[in-house]
Amino acid sequence: MIDRKYLIFDLGGVLLDIFPPATAEALAVLGVRKEHITDGLTLENPLLHSIECGNSTREELFAAIAESMGRELTPSLAEEIRAAWCALLGTAPAWKFARLRALREKGYKIFLLSNTNAIHWETITKIVAAAEGKQLEEYFDGVYLSFEMHCRKPDVTIFEQLLQAEGIAAEEAVFFDDSSENCNAAASIGIESHLMERNGNWPDWLN
């Protein structure tokens, strides 16, 4: 039983299945060298951090990937890179979205808070629409995306922005994420946080 009114959900790994190694494998098939995948193509890379914060364009990302392959970026290569970039995105389990509907019907306010980029977001909305016949935004009382907010978890600023925009006190909210780092950041400002198993079942008390 949840004793707080406001529930904040992560997207990838909590609501949508994700498989990051699939993108690494797809990029390798395209010819990106292993050292760029393991060392360069990570969220610690300034360019990738920048695109998730909405401060760089897809063209800049694709050009950097093409350069790491020693190739010129063409429209056809850009499409191949886009497909590889989105290879990590899996299915949207119907039972999770049914549970979101049920929680809202019980009076809970449901929010999405996701580290993502415009490229992934376009594909994610198509995956959910195809599976559910509804737009992803329809399941939430508010949608907060890192590339639109210009900051990303675990920066506590992103949590503070959501709370301020919705007029919610930290102690009124519960946060669900598959990253311990993100959960710890939310907890540091007073949000009750629960670490979820990536792509797994939810705890019985939430179901």
What is the average per-residue confidence, as pLDDT, rounded to a whole number?
A: 92
Strand content: 5-15%
Output the CATH class name of the largest domain: Alpha Beta
Radius of gyration: 18 Å
CATH-defined architecture of the largest domain: 3-Layer(aba) Sandwich
Head-to-tail CA distance between termini = 9 Å
- What proportion of the residues is helical, as a percent range? 40-55%
Net shape? globular
- The CATH superfamily label of the largest domain reads HAD superfamily/HAD-like
Please tell me the total number of domains: 2
Tally of individual helices: 10
Task: Describe the protein.
The protein is an alpha/beta fold and 207 residues long. It has 2 domains: 6-18 and 91-195, Rossmann fold (3-Layer(aba) Sandwich), CATH 3.40.50.1000; 20-85, DNA polymerase, domain 1, CATH 1.10.150. The chain has helices at 20-30, 34-40, 46-52, 58-68, 75-85, 94-105, 118-132, 146-149, 156-166, 180-188; strands at residues 6-9, 109-114, 142-145, 173-177, 192-195. A 5-stranded parallel beta sheet has the order 3-2-1-4-5, sandwiched between helices. Helix 1 (20-30) packs antiparallel against helix 5 (75-85).
Q: In short, what is this structure?
A:
The protein has helices at residues 20-30, 34-40, 46-52, 58-68, 75-85, 94-105, 118-132, 146-149, 156-166, 180-188; strands at residues 6-9, 109-114, 142-145, 173-177, 192-195. With 207 residues, the chain is an alpha/beta fold.
